[in-house]
Amino acid sequence: MSEAAQQAAAGTAAQVAPEIALKVNNIEVIYDRVALVLKGVSLTVPKGGIVAILGANGAGKTTTLKAVSNLLHAERGEVTKGSVEFKGERVDKLSPNDLVRRGCIQVMEGRHCFGHLSIEENLLTGAFTRRDGSKAVKDDLEMIYDYFPRLRQRKGSMAGYTSGGEQQMCAIGRAMMSRPSMILLDEPSMGLAPQVVDEIFEIVKDLNRKQGVSFLVAEQNTNMALKYATYGYIMETGRIVMDGAADDLRDNEDVKEFYLGVGGEGRKSFRDLKSYKRRKRWLS
């Protein structure tokens, strides 16, 4: 191939390759300087993408998100190996506040609204780090109400007396008020009715498409996550054991059996399988 052709091919590849918003490089996380929780976790989130981290409770999904958002120190955890890059810059040594100012924010598992504040007061706390004036904040508040009509109806209600679905919407809306380019969303379906979960994921899809917000979603509801994500990582015991395009994971027989509740022909039930056989199949 001529030099001109090679340059043209390189230029085409550069145009096709998506810009990376978040890159987690082979991180290791230890709690209390003793408990090894994450072991060599690596993942990427393209700019404008929705990426899911899947797995059972205790697999390491939440710890991965907290390693990115720098919230581990509050729980006596730390990243001891590897690195985290956001928009091409290493950020694992920054404070959570600095990371929010750079455009990356986490919506915690369990919603964690300020129960004694109204819905609108909760939303306004999300704009605390902004310095672009009250008009911009007011405009964004209206935008949040357009995405979450239920919050407009309940904006004067104390958050602690609203439903679980409304609190989850409030938590996402509060994160959006900081004008993020990436949201780390932890277990958005937890404890919610299926209809509400559908509504929340549809709003996530709209925020991603219309506002260009990238999402890294940790979720046990594999079926729902793979419906909206473009790429997924499956975790077990602190490791990534499988990854791929969402469509490919949905069609994978192991994923169907262990996470989607669909058994393949002639396959044993999950209860009958030894854990080492399961791991061997994942890693083969």
Could you list some keywords that capture this structure?
Rossmann fold; single chain; 12 helices; 10 strands; 6-stranded mixed β-sheet; 4-stranded antiparallel β-sheet; globular; 284 residues; alpha/beta
How are the secondary structure elements laid out?
Blueprint: H1 3-16, E1 20-31, E2 35-46, E3 50-54, H2 61-69, E4 77-86, E5 89-90, H3 96-102, E6 104-107, H4 119-125, H5 134-147, H6 149-153, H7 164-176, E7 182-186, H8 194-211, E8 214-219, H9 222-228, E9 231-236, E10 239-245, H10 246-251, H11 253-258, H12 275-283
Parallel strand pairs: 3-8, 3-9, 6-7, 7-8
Antiparallel strand pairs: 1-2, 1-4, 4-5, 9-10
Structure overview:
- It is a single chain.
- Helix 8 (194-211) links the parallel strand 7 and strand 8.
- The radius of gyration is 20 Å and the shape is globular.
- A six-stranded mixed β-sheet has the order 6-7-8-3-9-10, sandwiched between helices.
- The chain is an alpha/beta fold.
- Residues 266-277 have low confidence and may be disordered.
- The protein is built from twelve helices and ten strands.
- 40% of the residues lie in helices and 24% in strands.
- The chain has a single domain, classed as P-loop containing nucleotide triphosphate hydrolases (Rossmann fold, 3-Layer(aba) Sandwich), CATH 3.40.50.300.
- Helix 4 runs parallel beside helix 7.
